[in-house]
Write a structure and sequence with these properties.
With about 100 residues, this protein is an alpha+beta fold. It has two domains: about 55 residues, no CATH class; about 50 residues. It contains five helices and two strands; from the N terminus they run αβαβααα. A two-stranded parallel ribbon has the order 1-2. β1, α2 and β2 form a beta-alpha-beta unit. The chain starts with a helix and ends with a helix.
Length: about 100
């Protein structure tokens, strides 16, 4: 829903009729979702390395790190720190990031 909101905002700001979406990893299914619920706003979707059959990394983490453990909390803090660093270096994003939710996505 965040991407759909961004697409609507972008189209309103630019006056364009449609967008071309490019999604990598979890962005692939996200871009396809937007195209499926609002095909009138999307000219094309390009998906690169999408997690169409799940994520091997997420499966590995879920299989080795117990939920609610100190190790899981440490991994979450490290992921949040990395996300913060990437946002600072790339110009930032004010969208919420949830490392645990991404494992289940």
């Amino acid at each position: 829903e965040q991407l759909l909101s961004q697409v609507e905002t972008l189209l309103a700001a630019t006056g364009a009729n449609k967008v071309n979406l490019i999604g990598h990893s979890h962005g692939g299914p996200t871009a396809r979702y937007v195209a499926s619920v609002r095909p009138d706003l999307v000219a094309s979707v390009t998906s690169i390395g999408g997690v169409n059959k799940g994520s091997k990394v997420a499966d590995l983490v879920r299989g080795t790190v117990p939920e609610g453990s100190g190790t899981e909390q440490l991994a979450v803090k490290l992921a949040q720190g990395l996300t913060t660093l990437i946002n600072l270096l790339s110009g930032g994003s004010d969208l919420d990031q949830d490392p645990l939710a991404s494992l289940a996505a």
